[in-house]
Amino acid sequence: MSEIGARLAGCEIPTNHELSYSFDIHSAILDTYLGRVPELRYTRRRWVGDLLLPPPGAGRVVAVTPLEKLLRLPGVLGGRVLLVPGTEVTPQRASPTPYPYSRQGHR
User: Fold this and answer.
1) 99: left (phi over 0), alpha (psi -120 to 50) or beta
2) Closest CA to 66 of 86, 83, 89
3) Directed axis angle between helix 13-21 and helix 25-33, to 10°?
4) What is the pLDDT of residue 94?
5) Which residues are 88's β-sheet partners?
6) Across the 107 residues of the chain, what is the mean pLDDT of every consecutive 10-residue run?
7) I need a labelling partner for 102 at 20 to 30 A (CA). Which of 20, 24, 47, 90 fits?
8) If we measure between CA atoms, which residue out of 59, 55, 43 comes closest to residue 83?
9) Which stretch of DSSP H or E encloses residue 89?
């Protein structure tokens, strides 16, 4: 047995495209999987990207700016807050480079 599942690209690519052009990307993707040609009505053209703010180090989160406050900032279209006060965090590496970084063999 096997499974076939529709999966969206990672890194918020579909969401960014949807926000950039103001159309329903999930309906468009569903149409594509069902063999229909999606009708794309782009109603805006704007630059959209992500700003991932990882915890700066290990420890316990003591405060988090509420999402409602962040959404009031100029240019913010959406957001997601993943941590709450009291959450224990550890630093996450975004690089396969051995840690701690060694300059041996690097120029």
Assistant:
1) beta
2) 83
3) 120
4) 61
5) 60
6) 66 80 86 90 81 76 90 86 86 58 42
7) 90
8) 55
9) strand 88-89
